[in-house]
Amino acid sequence: MESIRHWRLLSIVLCFCVFGFMDLARSQSVFGQTTGPWKEKWDKTVAAAKKEGKVVVFGPPGDLVRRAVTEGFQRAFPDISMEYSAARSGVQAAKVKAERQAGIFSLDVVLQGTTTAAVFFKPMGALAPVKPLLILPEVTDTKNWRGKQLEFSDKDQHNLVFGINVKVPVAYNLDQVKQQDVDELEDLLNPKWKGKIVVSDPLTPGAANVTFRFIWRALGPEKAKEFFRKIREQAGIVDRDERRMTEWVAQGRYAILLGPSDRIIAELSQRGLKFGVQPDFKRHGSLTTPGPSSIIYVDRAPHPNAAAVFINWILGKEGQTAWSKATQYASHRTDVPTEHLPSYVLPKAGTKYWRSYLETDVRRSPEEEAVLKEVFGR
Question: For residue 89, what pLDDT band results from cuts at 50, 70 and 90?
Answer without folding.
Answer: confident
